[in-house]
Amino acid sequence: MAADYYEVLGVARGASGDEIKAAFRKAALRWHPDRNPGDATAEAKFKEASEAYQVLSDPDRRAHFDRFGTAPQSNGMPDFQQINIEELFSDLMGGLFGNMGGVGNFVRGAVRGGRDVSKEVTLSLEDAARGCEKTLEFERIAACEPCGGRGAPAGSPIDACAACSGRGEVRYQQGPFRMARVCGACGGRGSKPRDPCPHCSGAGVAKRAEKLQVVLPAGIEDGATRTVEGYGDVAGAGARTGSLEITVRIAQHAIFTRDGQDLRCTVPVSFPQAALGAMLEVPSLDGAVKLRVPPGVQPGQELRLRGKGMPRFGGYSRGDQIVTVQVVVPTALDDAQRALVEQLASSLGQNAAAPQRSLFEKLKDLL
After folding, report:
1. What total of structural domains would you count in the chain?
2. Within a domain: residue 216?
3. Pairing assessment for the beta strands 117-123 and 244-250 based on DSSP bridges
4. What is the pLDDT of residues 75-98, one digit of tens each?
């Protein structure tokens, strides 16, 4: 009896072709030998998943299996014409397959590129508003300077790698597939220096400390990223050099919070200023500016300073500064002050000691 192929792939017996393909892709990515070197269990599970997909992806073979519970016989190489190998394994191999060299045959068509290097830079809100230049210090894998990336001193010979015959990859049979992996002896270069460079041990690349001046435009936001091509890791001769990925972080400000292109802040106002109105000086990114507080302003009311916010990206216009009024109530009154407040309350027809009626009570009066 054949294995239960539905169970092997973890799908229901009525699963669609797309569900079967997705399940096989997941299983193959998990158990692929390149991800589990030397693991016999993973190798067996990969073969089992491949066999299950071979049967269930073919309508006739699947019907045979559903009816008899056995895998139909096939002659010679299994029919994988329905399998898009590049699609199934692009995540695993990084999309580095070239044209198919035959049914079930993987052929590498390119050299894997260098990894990107990530770096965070922290700006003050003022720097983000004005735009600035920053010097970034970071490390990356770059061409070895003493040997110029050859992996060997100048004039020293470089031989074809004996392990892979200069191909840069080792080919092997894995179940129904003919696979290839990067040669471990030469790291995929296809060659080995006869007298390795003492600085990079023949790799042709080494860690290098870098300094780079970057320009960050006015109005840049927290979490924004910038990419500098060619400043990531070098993978080797003929490979694409990775990029430097810069992420901007804007430090918390003592006064302002950012709301898109607007800035928000809270300004304390005394009761007399709130009742009578006032002209106040308030902070802004441009320094102290005048703010007119209208008479009778209420706690929590927002006042707007036009054009005093953050620049819009590129610096052509600016948002606003939104000021929230916080009325400050005195916490301690002397006898004379208390008498004046009581006199004010009396003149307004209010009992200073009586609690304010609730909204519910006022609605009851209206009804």
Report:
1. 4
2. yes
3. parallel
4. 433 443 334 444 455 444 443 333
